[in-house]
Amino acid sequence: MVAVLTRVFGFKDIEMAEDIVQETMYKALQEWPFHRVPDNPSAWLYKVARNKAIDMLRRQKKLVYNTDSVASMAIMEKNVSGRIDDLFLDHEIQDSQLRMIFACCSPEINPESQIALTLKTLCGFSIKEIAKAFVTGEETINKRLLRAKQKIRSENINLEVPSGSQLTERLQSVLKATYLLFNEGYNAASGDMHIRKDVCVEAMRLVILLTNQAITNTSETQALLALMCFHAARFDSRIDKEGNIILLKDQDRSSWDPELLNKGYHYLDQASTDFTAGEYNIEAGIMAVHCSARSYEKTDWATILRLYEALLEVKDTPIVRLNKAVVVGKVSGPKEAIREILTEVGMDKYYLRHAILGELYQEDGQTNKAREYFLKAMELTESAAEKALISKKLQKLS
């Protein structure tokens, strides 16, 4: 709805679109509990948002419709309803979403602010969830969003899908935003659900939109979709009936979805046709090695380590170095992995760092150190499932 309404009002009035959507949701919360949930909830919401948009345009006498070729054109009031109805057609909704993603990732906006804006506006992330995705503070994210919206207003940035060299630049940010969206669904930052399948499915749907357009169907797009398929194939094996996390080493591999695995291999094969060694190609390759192993014990850790070393050449981040250190522990033992992690700085507030150190110290026989890091991890996470998992590890140390 935000994407569609932003095409009505213009990208510089994005906050107006967000306000209408918020009012629409509030009306649903008021009416649905006292009547019943509509047979088609989405259609109900679209209709309410449409009517509110028409009222807003009439009140402000801002009867504007944005197109690719013309920034805006005045239309007669009697045509307002029809124009907005057109934008709420299924194809136009998808087109609006695609345009919105690329508009949020305009080169006029700082790269990190681009992705934060996309996650907040188009994906519905909270400030806390965005901060977790960036491994940073909420205040930092608030400042990025404020600067991005000020930039949109001051420079009158348009809602458009670019072409040529500009597309490549924006596509990287678009892919990263959808990747972070999927990751949040795969490891929810807070709440009782460790996996939010709806969020993961939305991320996959957005990437499929990109693969359906020749101009955005690149090797990296195919590779990212492959990576998502490999992860999604393991959804049902990651959580037991009580909602507890099942780690990779304990998962029932026979429950992995063979159709999604096959799609993952297919998209990875498609992504490899031009021999691109981008970050998503390599990450998908890592997951392919994991998924092809007949058991956890038979995992080809040496190959995975080489892939992580290649990944660091194109994506040298604290998270990648942390994941690589875990694999180092599989190849060279826990002491070497601990040494690598302790040399990293700036991740003291990242719960997974402490959880991994707890595992490694436990494996190395240093029980007191393991307990110390498990307790710190417990303190830092807000996920109920993660707290339960760490609690079990602590009990085993007793």
Characterise this structure.
The chain is mainly α. Helices cover 67% and strands 2% of the residues. It has a two-stranded antiparallel sheet with strand order 1-2. Strand 1 (64-65) and strand 2 form a beta hairpin. Helix 6 packs across helix 8 (138-155), helix 11 (219-232) packs antiparallel against helix 13 and helix 19 packs antiparallel against helix 20.
How is this structure best summarized?
The protein is an all-alpha fold. The protein has helices at residues 2-9, 14-31, 41-60, 80-87, 90-104, 111-121, 127-134, 138-155, 165-186, 197-211, 219-232, 235-238, 258-271, 279-292, 301-314, 318-332, 334-342, 351-363, 367-380, 384-397, and strands spanning 64-65, 73-74, 190-191, 382-383.
